[in-house]
Amino acid sequence: MTYTVSPIGFVRSCFKEKFAIPRQPQLAPAARGVLELVAPFDQGDAVQGLEQVSHVWLLFVFHQALEDKPRLKVRPPRLGGNKSMGVFATRATHRPNGIGQSVVKLDKVEANRLWISGIDLLDGTPILDIKPYVPYADIITDASNGMASAAPALIPVVWADTALQQAHAQALRLQEPLVALIEQCLAQDPRPAYQTPAPEREYGAQFWDLDVRWHYPEPGLICVLEVIPKQ
């Protein structure tokens, strides 16, 4: 038996590429976006009452990770990217039906869009459903997960003087907490865990319409080198 689902909206996100997106929601509170609803859900009736809700669950499609052949085992980044686990024991993007879920902060409700933050969603992500977060039901105080018992350890992020000046200027233009966004995302160390980068190797990712470049001047330290508009 097969089922057909259609998006109820699409996310316009600060994340324009997969690299450097936090691996779970709420790890980067400064990560913001807009969920733009499509007809017939963009008239206001469908979101009536959501103004009473602080957070929502989003069910979505990993639209850039869809595969024809299901994977039974995956290599989750949390385990270093080189250890296999059953797909249902992980939140890896390679899902049998490409479906993901995230709990995000609901900052503002409009008739045809929701303003959200703490996101881990790629720009253009199709949203299948929205459900209100219900604290008394969704918080399980004695829950456990032996593979991911705590948030990943953060590493310090420092700035080259020029890069920090660039970031502040672009933050004013975008009206976004850009410095916090970059620091919150990079502190989680987006590179594959099995890599040991040389100090001269530079990494890059796009946030909003900006190219951000950084390197690892020493183990366990990130230095932001440049924040410039994407060419």
Automatic annotation (TrEMBL):
Keyword S-adenosyl-L-methionine among record annotations: yes
Gene behind the chain: tsaA
Pfam family, one: TrmO_C
GO biological process: methylation
Superkingdom of the source species: Bacteria
Protein name: tRNA (N6-threonylcarbamoyladenosine(37)-N6)-methyltransferase TrmO
Lineage, broadest ranks: Bacteria, Pseudomonadati, Pseudomonadota, Gammaproteobacteria, Pseudomonadales
InterPro entries: TrmO-like_N (IPR023370), TrmO_C (IPR041369), UPF0066_cons_site (IPR023368), YaeB-like (IPR040372), YaeB-like_sf (IPR036413), YaeB_N_sf (IPR036414)
GO molecular function, one term: tRNA (L-threonylcarbamoyladenosine(37)-C2) methyltransferase activity
Classification via PROSITE patterns: TSAA_1, TSAA_2
Keywords per UniProt: Methyltransferase, S-adenosyl-L-methionine, Transferase
Protein family per UniProt: Belongs to the tRNA methyltransferase O family.
